[in-house]
């Protein structure tokens, strides 16, 4: 039996520990980053005290949940910080590198997968002796940094929380609660919003029914007068021809109608009463629901800086890897933003910062030649903006964006045709950097060159209902100005019908709706267009863009309804069967099983209770472009004919194990593969065969991969043949050498996986 009571208790205890441990690690990492910068003697001592205490607390917590690897690593770290407290050691750059490596290992031990944890355990056992060696070395006290005036020695024990580098102190009137539980509560609160809208729909239906009674009364009033005449037997001209029996029958009919009239009037009174009561209940439900959702949103609000706690260490490690010196500045960290928005944008921030380090900021020697400070600067700034919005400014002081290079690269990678490019302004050209597949990198590596980074950024911003603007000055830097809502709230949606299915367009992406008669539609270069002002508008049917059957084909003479949408400066007319109404919409996700569905953002519940898809206008525009170039597969008469010939890959690798592995991966990906045992063998096979791409190792006998690449580039026949280097050499100098000899991609074996290789090969030659 579980000595703690139940296995569920152990699980909850471990969850609590993981939250606490991450806070300790964030504080330690933030302290190390601060200690690497020039600080006063007092501040140095205060921060060392904090990281020492955080490490000690993490060690104790790990021991309580029986994590010996974390315990032992923390003990070794604690010894180093203890020696630093006593001024027995100097924290050198090499020491900081080792300490940061330990933090990374601890993070993996805490939240990595089983294979990652196994590797981290081996690493920790190798790091601990090195930490012990540092802690036992006695050195001169560190030289204090220059100060503007004498400072007293610090007394961190009195108020240690004030010296906390990460500001992670927890208020005594607060409690810890997992983010997953908060998300669950928020979803339930949002479900009440759906109930509120359904209640409003029912109330509207009752109101519609009640509005029919006045018309009935007017109609009944005239009929009743005639019946009353018949009942009294008045000797009018109309009754003269009737016999007595007939007049009696009319009297009975009048009595029956009188009874029904009274019944209907009573029914009206009851409905009006119920309407009044339902309206009162609806107002109560509406107020309580709105208050609950607002309060839940408040619970989900968190400081913007909390999502970037790992960024200083990430920038430090990545800039070191690229051989650059970079300072990261984060401003407005106290701005409160919905946690879900911050989580959604985390990957976007990583891509933008990685881009700035890899492509934007120059090396120190080049910066000095240009009259810039040796260290580059990346800034992330949060600020409140008009309404309930937050502006996020991500900027760097690097080379900026050169529109001429964008034009060249866009045509080279097939992003846009030269004829279309000639009509674009520089601002419009710069927007091309957000297109999937666009890159200015000279070589594909494990971190850049695939053209996905900024495409992911624009996708995240669109999904959150925000906007992004690029400001740049060549030679001086670039800024990405992102405007996002502070919270994930309801938005206005336009409900439309296509066939038997309803869809919702986000109203913010709808420019207008219109009714188009057939005479207005022209065919230009195979496309249906309608002139809107002086600009032709391309028309695409929604069912075609979504790839679904047309259940209600339009007659040639029928007018069509068009929704004009805008996405990333592109306009498109989407024809539908019926334009419906607008309503407040709350996005419902599809869960982990469907994290990404093309053309669909999520689902919404209409007031009627019907669940309908919310359209992703950005995807729709891309689908329409693809439709115009390829044609819809379901349209009669559209067929792809012919058998596609397999692309041929030459794999050059001296290790038979690696050679067979690469061969199997590529053949599994649909490629025809031939192998060579080294560079010399590859040259012979190139001259005797026909290949679409070369995948080669670097370190090989007789002729290595660098020399092989040089020889391929020097031969006019093979000058455009793509070459992918797959190697264990991962230093910046080796990568730069790969660029110099003309390689198209550089994949490091330590980060190798088969999807990575197939993705790179597909980018150059397709499938």
Q: Overview of this structure, please?
A:
The chain is α/β, with parallel strands linked by helices. The chain folds into five domains: 7-144, Four Helix Bundle (Hemerythrin (Met), subunit A) (Up-down Bundle); 180-300; 309-485, 2-Layer Sandwich (Heat Shock Protein 90); 491-630, CheA-289, Domain 4 (OB fold (Dihydrolipoamide Acetyltransferase, E2P), Beta Barrel), CATH 2.40.50; 648-765, Response regulator (Rossmann fold, 3-Layer(aba) Sandwich). It contains 22 helices and 23 strands. The strands form six sheets. It has a six-stranded mixed sheet with strand order 10-14-15-13-12-11. Strands 2-4-5-7-6 form a five-stranded mixed sheet, covered by helices on one side. Helix 2 (41-64) packs antiparallel against helix 3, helix 9 runs parallel beside helix 10 and helix 10 runs antiparallel to helix 15 (453-463). Residues 1-5, 138-149, 151-172 and 632-642 have low confidence and may be disordered.
Task: Summarize, please.
This protein has 767 residues and is of the alpha/beta class.
Strand count, sense and barrel status of the largest sheet are:
6 strands, mixed
Spatially, the strands of the biggest sheet line up as 10-14-15-13-12-11
Q: Tell me the fraction of residues in β-strands, as a range.
A: 15-25%
Task: Calculate the mean pLDDT score and round it.
Answer: 77
Report the total helices: 22
The CATH class of the largest domain turns out to be: Alpha Beta
Structural class: alpha/beta
Could you state the CATH homologous superfamily of the largest domain? Answer: Histidine kinase-like ATPase, C-terminal domain
Ranges where pLDDT stays below 50 over 5 or more residues in a row are 1-5, 138-149, 151-172, 632-642
User: At the third CATH level, what is the topology name of the largest domain?
Assistant: Heat Shock Protein 90
Number of strands: 23
Please report the distance between the alpha carbons of the first and last residues.
56 Å
The proportion of residues forming helix, as a percent range, comes to 40-55%
Label the CATH architecture of the largest domain: 2-Layer Sandwich
The domain count comes to: 5
**Bulk shape:** globular
- The radius of gyration over CA amounts to 35 Å
